[in-house]
Amino acid sequence: xxxxxxxxxxxxxxxxxxxxxxxxxxxxxxxxxxxxxxxxxxxxxxxxxxxxxxxxxxxxxxxxxxxxxxxxxxxxxxxxxxxxxxxxxxxxxxxxxxxxxxxxxxxxxxxxxxxxxxxxxxxxxxxxxxxxxxxxxxxxxxxxxxxxxxxxxxxxxxxxxxxxxxxxxxxxxxxxxxxxxxxxxxxxxxxxxxxxxxxxxxxxxxxxxxxxxxxxxxxxxxxxxxxxxxxxxxxxxxxxxxxxxxxxxxxxxxxxxxxxxxxxxxxxxxxxxxxxxxxxxxxxxxxxxxxxxxxxxxxxxxxxxxxxxxxxxxxxxxxxxxxxxxxxxxxxxxxxxxxxxxxxxxxxxxxxxxxxxxxxxxxxxx
Length: 366
Prior knowledge:
The protein is mainly alpha-helical. It has helices at residues 2-29, 34-42, 59-72, 83-93, 99-111, 125-160, 165-179, 182-193, 217-255, 258-265, 270-282, 284-288, 290-299, 303-308, 314-324, 327-355. α7 packs across α9. Residues 47-79 have low confidence and may be disordered.
């Protein structure tokens, strides 16, 4: 197993390099950029990211932008910006160097987990990610736990009652839940329960209340889950459907196997057969998929939910950085997401072997 793990770890390096290289090449051909965005702002054509210039890349850009703005208010404004100023912007952002040098420097820095500073925010990229982590972890972890807590018992029950009235009507509910996009259900929850048009039982902004620090321990816990109630409901509604059907089908496959018939013939109770023999084999694929499910919810499942409920998490950070052409944040989040995805894939494989020692990945080619 040690040799298998080492091979997988070694393969992560070229895979990660390929992901970063492809993304870097695409960015080179994408229209616009941080320099163009600032120029458009100074010419009155954009009101976005350049309003935050001076934070991430230091006061030099801020001062240069102010000087250019003053200059553009005179006769030179009709003739465009000073080429020297544009060259200074390119130097500050690092675009005065060839693309291959910029990519090599980026990879070298990222290998040491040095992600630099944001172009348009007065903070390092690591600091920004740390600030957003609590929201994303809260949404991803609790959504995954709740989905598993609902899906596993429900899937087992549906497998045992396969074809019954219970199985039919719960399948209908599951299909409806799966068909409803989580962001549309989130909007419905806002309209109904967050002051949209009817009631205002739940807050619409943030992860905690302004007076959170003044609350007791019990009050903090209640306040925390009070803010999470609607976002988690919206996210779980579509997630538990797939997992429930996966659990049901996995149990049905195992229940029909010969060893289950043998166990029943030996006089074991239905409960003993189900949880003493079937459960371990049937839950292999479900439990082993937990790390991947968490990572999916953690990084990709909450972007629209974060927007709707004004939750400032990693998904919203990456989305905003992409719109603002804040390349340090864009590439850093891509690097971290990709690295974690590769590690979690390995963890998932190792989880299979822990649940079922008969599985031996080392015996096959990677």
